[in-house]
Each structure stands twice: as C-alpha cells, then as structure tokens.
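> call design_seq(struct)
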C-alpha cells in the first residue's frame, strides 16, 4: 500500500524529474547560416539521423551561378557527422531560374524535395522531385510536371502542399491570368507512398474570384480558398478532385483567412482560421475565430478564441494534429511580421516574418474549441515541437522564467485530457538540461520511440551539435 501511495505521488507531482537518463553529445560541425534554409532533422533511428537543408539563393555575390542545392548530412548514433550528400538542382543554362518548393519525409528510408525551373526564352516551366534514400545514400531526380508560360515575369506561381497524414502531395500551378485570360490552373496529386500520380487535371475557375490559399485533404482532394477580386469582402471555398468540382457552402458572414484539412473517423474536415464579421480590422481580430467544418455534411461550428492577440499577426502555422476518438487537438503557432526601417541601400525592405506564440487547442465531438492553452511566448521566433507518447504531450518552447519576465527554452509535459503542464527537469552538468542545453528549433528535434531517445540539434550562426537524451520517457 505504501509503495502504491509513493508511486501515485510521483505521477501527480508538479515537477517531473528524470532518472537513469544518459546524455551523449556529438562533435560540432559547421553549416552556412547565410545560405541554408528549411533545416530539418529527419530519417532518425537508433543508428543514424540526417539533417536536411536547402540553398535557394542565386549565388552571384559568391561568384557561383546558380547556387541551388539540397543537402543531406548523415550523423552517426552519437551525433557525429559522417557524410554529406549534395544534390545540385540547377540547370546551368543561362537565364533558367530555379526555386525550392518544399520537402517531407516519406517513410523510414525516403525523403522527398520538390523544385521548379522556368525559362522565359522557351516559354516553359518544369517541376522536379528529388528523392533521397538513406539505404543507397543517393538522390534520384525525376521531372513530374511541365507547363507552358508566357514569359519569366508571367509564369504564375507553383505551390507544393502536403496532406496532414503525410500520404499525399499536390503540385498546384496557379497560372498567370488577367482580365482577358481564362482562370485555368493545373493540379497534380501524388501518392507519396508510391511516388506515382493519383490524379491530375486542368481546373477552370471563375475570374471574379482569385486564389488566396489551398489545402489538401487526407483523401487526396484539393480545397481552395478564394477571395472576390477587388475590394469586395467575399470568399468562396471550393473542393476539387478527379471527380468533383463544387463550392462548399458556409456562413457568408464568416471571413476565412487560412484553411487546414484534417480527418476524424475516416471523414474529412476543415479547420478555418478567420473572423466572424464584415469589418476590416487589423491584428487582433483577423484570426480570432475558428470554424470546424464537416465537408461531408456541410455543418460548421464557429468558436471564439484568443488566437490573434499579437500585433501585426500575419498567419497561423499548424504544427501537429492529434485525433483521439471524437476529440481533435491542434498545436498551432502564430506568425507575426515586422517592417524594417528603410536605409540608403534598401529603401523598401521586405517584411521579416517570425513564429511567435504556440497554442494547444482542443475541439470536442461537436467541433467546439473547449480548451485553449498557450505554450510559451517564443521571442526567439523558433518553431515549437510536440511529441506524443501515451497520455502525455511533450512540448518544447520558450516559456516565462523568473519574476522579472525573463524567458528560457524549456520542455513541458501536458496530459492530453486536462492539458495541465508539468515542468521537465534533467540534471546535466549541474543545470537543468532543458533550460540550458536543449535550446533549439522544433524542426531540429526528433523522438525515436523504439529506443526511447530524444535528439536535439543545437545550432548557432556556424556550429551545429547533436545532443542525445536516452530514456527520455519515464
């Protein structure tokens, strides 16, 4: 009986301490922080892990033209750099432009990245997929789509969007159009498990609305958010598949700003972030309401939230979705922007976007937001990470620390039902590891469940170092 009481007290303690853990540090290695973007820790197992990054900059200032590369760095079990695989995705023909479109891990062995090149002199645009296999240690490149363009300046915009379940990707070519041109776009949906097309077709859309954003359902259907051309505050949500082209009706007083498709009980749903009025407002109310939309029945439930409490908020990034029975939990992160002051060298500087406050948001069976829990202020602008294990969520972020409002990186455990936080501590070199050594972006954190190991890639301007935490889940 005494043992049971002690065990119960340990489980319900406000601070969760670790026992029998082991921390292993890898050897530091360097990256080029000025060039490399979209850095991710991927393809992790007990033996190796890989750091992906992309260079999407024309290297005229470095006497390299063009400078477009995909990099995959292989790390051993302790996090030491053992190899680097580089894929140059640039056509060396003068005048051909290139762009990195996005990437995602497919399975335990493969990782895919998409790029495009366009050439005004030949009136063409082409999309390529580059698949890295850790078994072979090679990239395999394949052309998957070709489009005709008017010119380099009238080439339209190509988007690559992944489904929430990671099974599908869509290549959506938003063609250049004007008042005299029909609004026709190109859609291709790919099964990432086989890297083969599921369906493709031209999509004819009305000219009185323009495309604002899109999402891809877990069943491989495209959903478009479209805004009325001009100043009119009117929106459409349109579903497109190989067999369907239809509007999804919703409350015309609701103004959606961002769509995200999820699944529950094998049915497709939309989560829309926006506002519930016709008044054009700035910052705080733009994303202040959330609509949970059943695509099959057309039923919509709108909840008020405090999601948009940041000045100059520009977007909502969905980090993770967890479905348990009839409950849906979404971890999202607010994105804000600032406008740098003009300088003599740059009179019109581009806005600077950064990730800000993270939020855990839970929907009940009816689609109402019943719990809304901020998970850190995140002044560093880094992405949070959410790891699911048993009844707990492990969330890395930047939390308030101390009476004077100081902040520090931390990792906390939240029970799924109540979303009550518990601080995680791990004594390492006389300090709490998570506040002093685990300071990193969420894309550079991975959990390997079969060996109960947490991986961190710590990064500064030049150096990167892997830190392994064994026996992470107690």
């Amino acid at each position: 009986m005494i043992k049971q009481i002690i065990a119960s007290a340990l489980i319900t303690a406000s601070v969760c301490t670790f026992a029998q853990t082991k921390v292993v540090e890898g050897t530091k290695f360097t990256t080029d922080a000025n060039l490399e973007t979209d850095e991710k820790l991927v393809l992790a197992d007990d033996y190796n892990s890989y750091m992906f990054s992309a260079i999407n900059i024309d290297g005229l200032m470095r006497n390299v033209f063009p400078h477009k590369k995909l990099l995959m760095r292989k790390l051993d079990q302790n996090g030491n750099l053992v190899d680097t695989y580089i894929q140059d995705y640039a056509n060396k023909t003068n005048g051909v432009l290139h762009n990195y479109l996005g990437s995602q891990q497919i399975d335990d062995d493969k990782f895919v990245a998409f790029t495009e090149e366009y050439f005004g002199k030949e009136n063409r645009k082409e999309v390529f997929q580059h698949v890295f296999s850790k078994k072979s240690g090679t990239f395999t490149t394949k052309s998957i789509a070709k489009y005709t363009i008017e010119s380099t300046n009238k080439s339209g915009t190509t988007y690559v969007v992944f489904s929430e379940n990671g099974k599908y990707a869509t290549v959506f070519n938003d063609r250049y159009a004007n008042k005299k041109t029909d609004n026709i776009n190109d859609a291709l949906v790919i099964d990432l498990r086989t890297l083969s097309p599921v369906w493709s077709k031209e999509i004819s859309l009305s000219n009185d609305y323009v495309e604002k954003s899109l999402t891809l359902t877990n069943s491989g259907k495209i959903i478009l958010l479209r805004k009325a051309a001009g100043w009119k505050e009117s929106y459409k949500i349109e579903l497109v598949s190989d067999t369907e082209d239809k509007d999804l009706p919703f409350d015309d007083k609701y103004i959606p700003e961002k769509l995200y498709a999820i699944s529950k009980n094998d049915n497709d749903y939309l989560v829309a972030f926006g506002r519930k009025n016709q008044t054009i407002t700035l910052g705080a109310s733009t994303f202040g309401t959330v609509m949970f939309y059943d695509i099959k029945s057309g039923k919509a439930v709108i909840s008020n939230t405090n999601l948009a409490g940041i000045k100059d908020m520009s977007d909502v990034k969905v980090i993770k979705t967890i479905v348990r029975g009839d409950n849906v939990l979404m971890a999202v992160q607010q994105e804000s922007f600032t406008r740098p002051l003009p300088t003599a060298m740059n009179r019109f500087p581009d806005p600077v976007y950064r990730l800000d406050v993270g939020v855990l948001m839970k929907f009940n069976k009816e689609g109402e937001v019943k719990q809304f829990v901020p998970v850190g202020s995140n002044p560093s602008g880094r992405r949070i990470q959410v790891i699911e294990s048993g009844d707990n969520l492990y969330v890395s972020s930047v939390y308030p620390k101390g009476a004077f409002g100081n902040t520090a990186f931390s990792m906390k455990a939240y029970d799924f039902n109540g979303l009550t936080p518990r601080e995680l501590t791990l004594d390492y070199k006389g300090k709490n590891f998570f506040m002093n050594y685990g300071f990193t972006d969420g894309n550079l954190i991975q959990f390997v469940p079969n060996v109960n190991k947490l991986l961190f890639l710590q990064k500064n301007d030049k150096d990167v170092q892997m830190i392994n935490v064994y026996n992470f889940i107690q």
